[in-house]
Amino acid sequence: PNVIYLKDYEVPAFLVEQTELRFELEEDQALVRSQVRYARNPESSNRQHPLLLDGHESLELQRLSIDGEVLSEKDYRRVGEQLSIPNLPDHFTLECITRIEPQNNTALEGLYKSDGMFCTQCEAEGFRRITFYQDRPDVMALFETIVVADKQRYPVLLSNGNMVDAGDEDDGRHWVKWQDPFPKPAYLFALVAGDLECIDDRFTTASGRHVSLKIFAETKDLDKLDYAMTSLKQSMKWDEEVYGREYDLDIFMIVAVDFFNMGAMENKGLNIFNTSCVLAHPETTVDAGFQRVEAVVAHEYFHNWSGNRVTCRDWFQLSLKEGFTVFRDSQFSADMNSPTVKRIEDVALLRTAQFAEDAGPMAHPVRPASFIEISNFYTLTIYEKGCEVVRMLHTLLGAETFRKGSDLYFDRHDGQAVTTDDFVQAMADVSGRDLSRFKLWYSQSGTPQVSVTGEYDAEHQRYTLHMRQSCPATADMATKQPFLIPVAVGLLDAQGDDIPLTGGQTTEVLECVAAEQSFVFDNITVEPTPSLLRDFSAPVKLRFPYSREQLVFLMQHDSDGFNRWDAAQQLAVGIMSELVVDYQQGRTLVLDSALIEAYRQILNDASLDKAMVAKVLTLPSEAYLSELAEVIDVDAIHQVHRFVKDAIATALAPLFLQVYQANTSAEEYSPDATSVARRSLKNLALSYLMTTEQPEYLALALQQFKQADNMTDSQAALTLIAHSGFEAEAAEVLASFYQRWQSESLVVNQWLAVQASDPKPDALARVEALQQHEAYDASNPNKIRSLVSVFCAQNMQNFHNSDGSGYRFLADQIIVLNKQNPQIASRLLTPLTRWKKYSAEQGALMKAELQRINNSGDLSRDVFEVLSKSLA
Ligand code: DPP
Ligand code: ZN
């Protein structure tokens, strides 16, 4: 497979004025007729350039004609994924008829059929599985689409834009014509045909446009769409208020699909969603599920501007739309819920998973310089780190200037396909700042490290922060220049109050731009405790030599909520890392009482928000401890985690019980922030209590399991009981849960995930047995993720079993999936790719499985790229 480089970018030889599509959908095939009006691109240097069309090998080309003249095979060349037509005039219409087999499309890219319905997924390069086309985002065209299908089986026929005509044919078939008035790249094309129902609502935009809102699903799921509709209307309003962005069509549709590789897709006017990101109901959806629906609905809606109206020039610019849109949806979720909690959750994800990506073989910059398969780059770096980069611009410029910059960006580039440089340029233009150093965040990979020390000069009442930044080599890039790192800083006095800094503000954003730099604060009358990187102002690893007392002090006093949580994390990480060494050297484990006392304080502090208490009292995850470790000792980390949790639980059991009882309420379920916070604290308390394996707490959990009127409480209890040593009860609750929910596919997925993440030693055997269960479907990505991915990525203890059985299992799955669904196969590989972070013996076992996959023959581009980088 070829490597594609950003530096090789060339404008397309032809532009498209209009794309007309006609789909004849049948049970054993689909015929696609495209009529495309081309014009030579005046910006293309070569006037003789042939037309290069992308077309997947699975396309059966039935007819090709130029301005009505049928081409014969000598008039074009088809090699691999490319069709090349030479000797063309400056303007012409190309007609093309292809035959495809959606019913056999297991990759779920392009047009495919699942659960009796047709749907599409074209981002990034799925359109080339539908017809021959310049399948690249800088070719934007007006689309008109006619869909023809059997009326009884497929009463609903949808595509992008507005429905302009419809009719019946005499053979029981019907057709609908859709017109999209906005030019778009092929990756935003969508089509849906099925027996669906919808809920309806409307929204009136700020300028008075009436928009019809429809969310489609199978009849059985119609009662689970209200939350998505509410979230959609909130998103539309929020984007008007915060970004001045209005919706631009008369109709906005969402369709729920159970077979989907991604979470959701922002096709113009016709978003297609994985059921897991749109269906929500108190009885079947946990709190985190409601929040996911709210966030993803917002994310896809926000793409209408950041992605669709202004799109990407090429796929190296993917973060142009994704980073910005994730930033927008994170601001939205923060506004709808608790900003500090949202920030903590985002940073926890970034620090565990994105930092690990930077440290692994697939490390790449936010704007990659090359790729083999773009599907492999829908990554935490593009999305989450990309969001952090936009957030830093927001921090450096301030909200008001940032808004001016986004207005300028949208105005300047409406209807265009642009680059991350264009985005930064708009921000530079409105702020008058030179952002060239800032742009290194887009072009350099890796997680910068910032070491900070403080120096107090009592005589001159001066406090100095010395900063040293560096960025370790990554798999793709050896050396890096210093970044522009915004470090938000506060200084606490002995009482824990903020000391006023420049201009009386309590937080100052320092800009660290050199490898070594010092920042001086004057008029500091006592030696302060610094609060650094407030609200996680940059995606870096910052180190300051805090004592444990200082961390406890920050936990109790920092006015920055994020840093209070982070101080608790740092305290626990420090203590647990020492215990890991003790465990490895066979010493008896003893928990520093500082942690217990700090936790006790937090539990007793009635002034704190419950969601914050729950976050602060959540120990650093095993995955985060693994990311921080030089060499990952899975067993030591797991045992230490258990030990610490158990020691805290034992010491504070009466308090946890009180908290549990105080937060058990009979109110009707609601997914609002206050209720979510209450449940999260209650269920955290229950999880500590269950760690002690005392029968009295098992009784509590069983009671909660039986009485819960919502999935959050029910699933929390289920997980705790299923993962406990009370094996009879575990079997009982798992059986009764399945009995009750077997007809709810998404709930069954949770049931699979609970078993796949069970730390008890027989988990792999269970997972293998579940693959044969009636509830499992090896062609459904959600099922694969719930069972196989959860086992391999979250059940560290069992996946990394020293006999290599977990690795063998995963390799076997990938060898099958490589042919069936390459995108999912390549995703699943991730845990094995990190082999260099484990002991020599374990690493060798992992590497051997990578090699076995490599030798299994006929690798997809997706799997090939990840494998070759992992074995390099
Ligand atoms: N559907 C994916 C997303 O919205 C890719 N665009 O992030
Ligand atoms: Zn997106």
Automatic annotation (TrEMBL):
Enzyme Commission number(s): 3.4.11.2
Its biological purpose: Aminopeptidase N is involved in the degradation of intracellular peptides generated by protein breakdown during normal growth as well as in response to nutrient starvation.
Cofactor dependency: Zn(2+)
Protein name, as recorded: Aminopeptidase N
Pfam families listed in its UniProt record: DUF3458, DUF3458_C, Peptidase_M1, Peptidase_M1_N
CDD domains: M1_APN
Limits of the Peptidase M1 alanyl aminopeptidase Ig-like fold domain: 446-543
Catalytic activity: Release of an N-terminal amino acid, Xaa-|-Yaa- from a peptide, amide or arylamide. Xaa is preferably Ala, but may be most amino acids including Pro (slow action). When a terminal hydrophobic residue is followed by a prolyl residue, the two may be released as an intact Xaa-Pro dipeptide
Molecular function terms, GO-annotated: alanyl aminopeptidase activity; metallopeptidase activity; zinc ion binding
Organism encoding this protein: Amphritea opalescens
Occurrences of domain Peptidase M1 membrane alanine aminopeptidase (ranges): 227-438
Keyword Ribosomal protein attributed: no
